[in-house]
Amino acid sequence: MQDIWILVVVSLFALSSSALGSFLVVRQMVMLTDTLSHSILPGIAIAYIVQGEKNNLFILIFALLCGLLIVSIINWLNSRIRNRNDAVLGSVYTFFFAVGIILVTLFGEQADLDTDCVLFGEMLYIPFDTLDWAEMPRNFPLALVVGIGVLFFVWKSFRPLSIISFDETFAQSIGVNVTFWNYALTSLVTIVTILSFEIVGSVMVVAMFAFPPAIAFLLTKRLQIMLIISLIVSIFSVVIGYYFSVWQGGSSAASIVIVQGIFFMLSVIFNKVGFINKIKI
Amino acid sequence: MTNFEYVLLGASFIAISAGIVGVWLVLRKEALRSDVVTHSVLPGIGIAFLLFQEKKLWLLLLGAFVTSLLSLVSLDTLSKHTRLKKDTLMALVLSFFFACGLWLLVKIQESKNAAKTGLGNFIFGKMASILPEDILFALIVLFLVVTINFLTYRWLFFTSFDRTFSESIGVKTSLASFIVTFMSILTIVVGIQAVGVVMLSALLIIPSTIAIIIEKKNLSRIFVWSIGINILVIVIGTILSYSFPKTPTGAWIVVICFLIALVFFLKNNKK
Question: Which region is the signal sequence (chain A) (predicted)?
Fold first, then answer.
């Protein structure tokens, strides 16, 4: 039963991240999740320290505030310094990550948070951390709401999202509200990043967003099919990766990413050979 | 010498190598590649430890060298042979290698080996974990980096500023790229224990970016500034991580780097 709970919660996050990740891969924005997952750490650390216990809503609010702060600092610096955007971005997010690490190592003990949580996430603790009012993991309702919400959003707004992914100017000209859809996509990505940070750890969040869509990107040229393949791949890699770590030991989050990497290598090889392209999907 | 002085000596050797290599990386716009290298040293350390079952630094560093080279080779091969864009590929390669490294690290921690202690320092860095014999490695790498720089300075100079022109006068640009990659891997490999995998790329990139902003014309002055800032930052970071023993050195270094960078970023604007 514990295995099932872990698989369900992680799969829900994997589904939401790969659905959003498909658009990020097409738009070459994958590094956004890397930046976010590193720089929200101080927010999460402060939420833990202030609250003294886990409270998803609190963490979400603090991490969102932290994200807003970073975006405004980056914008402010970019407006003052020209031509060094990549350096500004790189230094701001590593700075925030470093501040987070210092907070975690200095005050983490009293708040049940350590650098291992930051690196590996807390996947295996999911079933032991139950709600007061029901026999289910604390993360489950949230994962369910986010998963269904994201999939519903992608399904309902597939057309505008795909149009702005390929040609923003064209989308503008036919009356699509580009700014609105960009904000909607970015804020959903932020929420999913914050929530999956706790599950898989800071560095592996980007893999959950990037690997399944990248695999699908190699196998097809149509966005709908890419989306479907990446959802299937994400579920498969979660299940196989989890049972691999049960069988062989090692970190579960890391073994999910390793399985995704192996899938990716296979798809590169088969794509090169031309095996997949011959099958008409 | 006391232990603290040893550590400071080793730290300054690392700082000088990082200062030199960082300038080339930023000038050649290869700064993001160093992020991939720093994350992919971890599986090499894990594999070397599992193979030899002891914490011999040079064996671990050899493993680190091999996997980081492998990560760059796979990055280049993939960008040549797939339709995926460079930033997506970097995210993929980086997270895959890092995941392999973390998986091995957890595996090693589960295996209750007495010699395992201290492998965790490779992730966030702990300057205090440097031993006197490790300083010898830092010195060798510094010597190699400086020698390579003296021998190939003009090459690197030309190819960094105008690749097409240097190609046309017969300079081998790909070889020059390889030399820079080689030097950066060497530096990263000796720096990981002190500064940590996650934040070493900041030490390579931020001080040299500040140096380039301060000094716009004279390349040798850029090198001097970059080395100077690097030494300053590493020394302060080491002292702070000594005064708060639980905190990792890498994190302090990044914080100080950023604060110095902020001052110069803003000052730069007023000119």
Answer: none
